[in-house]
Design a protein that fits this description.
Elements: H1 4-12, H2 20-29, H3 35-51, H4 56-66, H5 69-83, H6 93-98, H7 111-126, H8 155-169, H9 173-200, E1 208-213, H10 219-232, E2 236-240, E3 245-250, H11 252-282, H12 288-328, H13 342-360, E4 364-366, H14 375-388, E5 400-402
Helix pairs in contact: 1-2, 2-7, 3-5, 3-7, 4-5, 5-7, 8-9, 8-11, 9-11, 9-12, 9-13, 10-11, 10-12, 11-12, 11-14, 12-14
Length: about 400
């Protein structure tokens, strides 16, 4: 006779009938001996997700989006138990595991409800598509993409993180402006220092990639904001609107800077939008959705030009410093300077990033961006971006996503 768990899976996961999940959950609820195998198979579904290019944060994000918070907790428990099998984990996995939601108790509130929720989760995991990998799955040897070294966070990034946290927390726009501007300048300088060091030491470092969630609502504006931040920090971002994330390609220090700044600017922008919207409502306004969409679109566009200007200013100052240092070194006039010229170094890194992004995404499509229709929202969003005082070039590849 077919085991109960196979009967349950056949009904709930591999058939299209509406009664399948109920039938499967009833079978599992009536047979406690199937509990251990039910969890083991869930871990296997999670393991298949790693092979298809997914990482812990990706899985939790799509489960939360397509199901609910209970399912996110269930998959977090499976991820935690599955990853305990490995002696070491790929870079960035440890921080993702630390951020997992709490797993709910097993068989609560009752055996049927618990089994029904698990089967719904497994149905989603079973249908996850393959996506572009941004690192090897656990338990395999690194290959393809460059992996960052496993070491403590550089002191510069710790300082940048602290500046952005203060910018998010302060209630004074002028202080937030100064803190965020300083953070972007430090990011740009840190990127330049890393590039020059790699050139001097003839480093074989290559670009890597990471995924950053771009969640609804107003995901188009958020994707444009992330693209602007990525471009200003010498990265490329490709948006997958169907799965709710952007893949950012760049050198490791620039990837870290992009994720830090985007997260902070989104927090600052959301807070400014909520405050501006409250003022609009106090005046009797009710068109909340169009106001928010226009606000965030203007915020993203304005920050694009601001970030570009900040990065260009820091780069020009650094280029002047390197030219001066090269001219002062013995043998400089005969071409024997050990100090590399900055602009060719940055150009080479930009080319490496572009080549990597094009290998990962040989085909992309362009998504038409809906224009802002609310003048008040646009005006307030532009003002909020000016207060944040951070900007990057307009989106290098606006609204693009990997073609499926």
């Amino acid at each position: 006779m077919e085991p109960v768990i196979d009967q349950a899976f056949s009904a709930a996961l591999y058939s299209d009938g509406d009664a399948g999940p109920d039938t499967g959950a009833s079978l599992l609820a009536a047979d406690p001996t199937a509990d251990a195998e039910l969890v083991r198979r869930g871990e296997e579904f999670v393991r298949r997700a790693w092979v298809r290019g997914w990482q812990p944060a990706d899985v939790v994000r799509i489960v939360r989006r397509d199901l609910d918070e209970t399912a996110a907790g269930l998959v977090a428990g499976l991820i935690a138990s599955e990853t305990r099998r490995y002696e070491s984990l790929p870079p960035r996995w440890r921080s993702q595991l630390d951020g997992l939601p709490a797993a709910p108790p097993r068989n609560r509130p009752d055996r049927f409800s618990y089994a029904f929720a698990l089967l719904g989760l497994y149905r989603l995991l079973l249908r996850l598509p393959a996506i572009e990998p941004v690192g090897p799955p656990p338990g395999t040897s690194p290959h393809g993409l460059h992996l960052p070294p496993a070491h403590d966070e550089p002191r510069m990034l710790t300082r940048i993180r602290a500046l952005l946290a203060k910018a998010e927390a302060t209630g004074y726009p002028e202080e937030a402006e100064a803190l965020t501007t300083k953070a972007q300048e430090l990011m740009a300088r840190h990127s330049i220092d890393e590039a020059l060091l790699a050139a001097r030491t003839h480093s074989k470092e290559a670009p890597g990639a990471c995924r950053i969630g771009v969640d609804a609502p107003y995901e188009t504006a958020k994707a444009i904001l992330l693209d602007a931040v990525a471009s200003a920090n010498r990265c490329r971002a490709v948006w997958n609107s169907d799965l709710g994330f952007s893949t950012v390609v760049g050198f490791e220090p620039d990837l870290e800077a992009t994720e830090l700044l985007y997260t902070s600017l989104l927090v600052q922008g959301t807070a400014a939008m909520t405050k501006a919207e409250a003022g609009q409502r106090a005046g009797g306004r009710k068109r909340t959705k169009t106001f928010r969409q226009s606000f965030l679109m203007a915020y993203a566009q304005r920050l694009g030009s601001r970030l570009a200007a900040d990065t260009a200013r820091v780069t020009a100052a650094a280029e002047a410093e390197t030219e001066s240092a090269a001219g002062a070194e013995p043998g400089a006039e005969s071409g024997g300077s050990a100090t590399p010229h900055l602009l060719p170094v940055l150009a080479a890194r930009d080319m490496a990033v572009t080549d990597t992004a094009e290998r990962m995404f040989p085909e992309t499509t362009t998504t038409r961006v809906r224009g802002a229709t609310d003048l008040d929202g646009w005006t307030h969003g532009t003002a909020a971006a000016d207060r944040a005082r951070t900007g990057g070039t307009g989106p290098e590849i606006p609204g693009r996503r990997g073609k499926r």
